[in-house]
Amino acid sequence: MENYKPEELTEALRAINSIIHKCEIAQKKFPEGKSQHTLLKNRLKTMYISKALITEALSKIKPFAEQQSLSDNNCNSDLLLSNLDHLHTTDLGAERIRKNLHLDTDDVVDWCREKIKASNASITRKGKNWYITVDTCKITVNAYSYTIITAH
After folding, report:
1. 3-state class percentages of the chain: helix first, strand second, coil last, to nearest 5
2. Is this prediction's pTM over 0.85?
3. Edge-to-edge strands, sheet with 122-126
4. Fewer CB within 10 Å: C terminus or N terminus of the chain?
5. Which residues sit opposite 41 in a β-bridge?
6. Looking at the predicted structure, is the pLDDT value of residue 112 above 90?
7. Do residues 87 and 148 make contact, with C-beta atoms less than 8 angstroms apart?
8. What is the C-alpha radius of gyration for the chain, rounded to an integer number of angstroms?
């Protein structure tokens, strides 16, 4: 793992956490003994091992305080702020945000990015989402994919 930069390992860990989350949800849909259930069980085992190896490699590179930001449910807003370039939304999401906030802008993502960066923004994380409260609006961002889900 010495060949990888800490940023690459951190991004890989973020992707693995997302895959684990999706596989755990999908696995519940299939009864035990079915091939799909077994396949997902094997994938999850592989992802858990990968996650442990990457976390161990990162712990040798980064100080403990930085490692805490890699936790699935950690509320360290620096993790969101350092990944604002990954922020995106769908066409429907952009339309929903424009409608909810009565925005007159073509670039909803940039508008949200600026709000999130504001000094008065309050950022919290609950489960799989970040919740950003700033001025009179609340923005919801998926913590794994950095997709802006909605804003009110």
Report:
1. 55, 15, 30
2. no
3. 122-126, 129-134, 137-142, 148-151
4. C
5. none
6. yes
7. yes
8. 18
Q: Both tokens of residue 25?
A: 């949800």
CA gap 82, 145 in Å, rounded = 14
- Rounded distance, CA 123 to CA 134, Å? 9
**Per-position b or e across 50-85, b if 16+ CB within 10 A of its CB:** bbeebeebbeeebeeebeebbeeeeebbebbeebee
Q: Which tokens sit at 122? A: 């309050």
126: enclosing H helix or E strand? strand 122-126
Which amino acid, one-letter code, is at 152?
H
Q: Which residue shows structure tokens 């995106």?
A: 88
What totals of helices (H) and strands (E) does the chain contain, helices first? 6, 4
